[in-house]
Amino acid sequence: MKMTRLAATLAATMVVAGPNLADTLHFPSLSYRTGPFAAGGIPFADGYSDYLTLINERDGGIGGVPIRQTECETAYNTERGVECYQSIRNDNPLVLQPLSTGITYQLIPRTMEDGIPMHTMGYGRTSAVNGEVFNWTFNYPANYWDGASVIINYLLDENDGSLDGKKIALLYHNSAYGREPIPTLTRLGETHGYELVTIGVDSPGQEQGSQWLQIRRERPDYVVMWGWGVMNPTAIQEAANIRFPMENFIGVWWSGSQQDVRPVGAGAHGYKALAMHGTGRDYPIYDDMQRYVIDAGKYAGTGDEVGTVLYSRGMYAAMLAVEAAKKAQEIHGVAAITPAMMRDGMANLEITEELMVELGLPNFGPAFSVACENHGGSGAAMIQQWDAEAGEWNLITDWISPDRDLIMEMAMEDSLAYAAENNISPACLN
Amino acid sequence: MPDTLLFALEASLNGLTAGVMYALVALGFVLIFKASGIFNFAQGVMALFAALTLVGFQSGQIPFSHLINAMFGTRLHHFGWNMPTMLAIPATVLVMIALAILVERFILKHLVNQEPIILFMATIGLAYFLEGVGDIMWGAEVKALDVGLPKGMSSAVDEATFNWFGYGFYIDRLEIWAAGIAAVLVAVLTVFSQYTKQGRALRAVADDHQAALSVGISLRFIWVLTWSIAGIVALVAGIMWGSKSGVQFSLSLIALKALPVLILGGFTSIPGAIVGGLIIGVGEKLFDFFMNPIIGGATENWFAYMLALVFLLFRPQGLFGERIIERV
After folding, report:
1. What is the percent of chain B with per-residue pLDDT over 90, rounded to a whole number?
2. pTM (2 d.p.)
3. pLDDT, tens digit, for every residue of B231-263?
4. Are B123 and B104 in contact (CB under 8 A)?
5. Structural domain of residue A26, as residue ranges?
6. Residues A266 and A388 in one domain
7. What's the complex ipTM?
8. Which of B64, B77, B300 to mutate to probe the A interface, most A CBs <10 Å?
9. Residue A251's beta-bridge partner residues?
10. CB count, 10 Å around CB of B114?
């Protein structure tokens, strides 16, 4: 009896002492810290969480309203991702970041129906750039088709403007994610005259013997990789094994983190990958991050991934979410915004280099603005190259723009087909 | 020789070496199934756990450091020294033996005379438990594993085949070493089971555990012995696969590669695991080689199961499995 009374008193105390959930801004994180893809999911989730913690600790939240973080484990599994969504959809989630193309495809119709914005930064359904069809989905600052086009533009630059007669092999994760760049690379091949060879790798991708024998037989000039998880280091190791010139091997931004090259050691030297943002700790924001989050012991995870590629990406995603929330507060004149207001903030987001400098992230990401006709930002990316001896990624180009005319044309075709299939009348919400 | 034939020959050779890698994983399953009738679902996770422990010892990582840091606010990560591989491997073997003792003490001992399905379910639980413990103990980041085994293209094979055919074959030196190590492993296991007292006891339990008990063989000791040997085999598999693609949590999924090998070779035969591995390896590489231009590749995951299914139709006990005799 005594115990029951004690428990009741404790529960009542917690309710009284705890924050009023209605007076917080809920930023959920659909993370994966377990399962075969955990090595990539953990640093992203840590970066996302640490930035939000920084905003709470340093600024007292956004517009004076504290941020409430929740995390739901998806294990990079689509069904679990949908379950996570069901568990948080009634808790005023301001923006969803599913961190999985498979989960994104499942959540697009659900979030449309529930009126919850979703941000799929560098992944998900590419044609979501068309905001007239995908009112609630945003994929700025770049998408897969941008990535494919940026790689081709980089290779054009490397080959004096012509890829005529060249052979490019696409090594892709055999999933919705991995197959995304195929239409773009095919169309660009017709324009620029290169031959495209597509080679699929079954998930998770730790056995690629056949694929690299094929690459050895086909003798492509370049190999482009759309991989994730263990597929990446295995592919880089196999490329080193067959002595494929590493400078002709380029991965998408999900194949360009420390986790992908470190296990290969010296063999990975010279490997290239797309970068949609800067990396490393040479940004002023890390002074504040160190002071308010790391030294204060409030960091997520272990704190030893700070500044790595995927940590930086998580931090960048959180920064864009916070800026969209500020924009929403500005548009609607209220601090306690709703998911619908957050959507308006995302749809009118403007990121300038001045703002990036102000945030302590100079030249970290591209300047871009979002509009109903373009939910995808600028699509620009840089190329980075791995220095195995120094153990660091070096940016070797400035921002490279994609062939946006072609991408928007393809996105329109795909999105309008989606609209027709799902009885959606394309129109802007604001 | 026509190019297609040369390429097919190269694919077959690579299939043989890949098959040995699959067989290494399958061996662990066979050992436990043969001695105790348990299909050990945790064998893949044991390979992962062994590899994680080996890398942890090599790099001087403090086990459970993340947990300790979270509880006490410390910043512990490494002891500050690296353990030589020759010392780290025996240390890992000791950990795997300790794990075998714990498995016997806390799981198997309590499930004596239970249905095989109950024991199988227990190993599923063990797999999830071990995966979680491995994560907490050593962290989830990808780790490079280097025990000094050579990697990359074998120049000797490349040059020799180039001189013969005008086309140099690619074979990974790591997989050549894996073949040698697997051969030594099978030889040692055969000698152990045929010529040592413990080996004979192990075979006696495998044949009829009640008869073995009646002549004074300790079932508990045999179980610890079997799980220890399976742990050591898991360590060998973990080293070979970890050297290939780094030590990370998808390493546990290599168990999925062993299942078709077991169906094909039989659950109770060590030579069956080797031959099954070789057939699966060559089969999937040749299928990929000939069918890739037509169906676009990515066939390795399902083809092995399809091949095993065909064998299952004609020989349900596998190529080398014990004949199923049902008495009416």
Report:
1. 53
2. 0.89
3. 999 999 999 999 988 898 888 888 888 899 998
4. no
5. 2-142+297-379
6. yes
7. 0.87
8. B300
9. A225, A273
10. 12
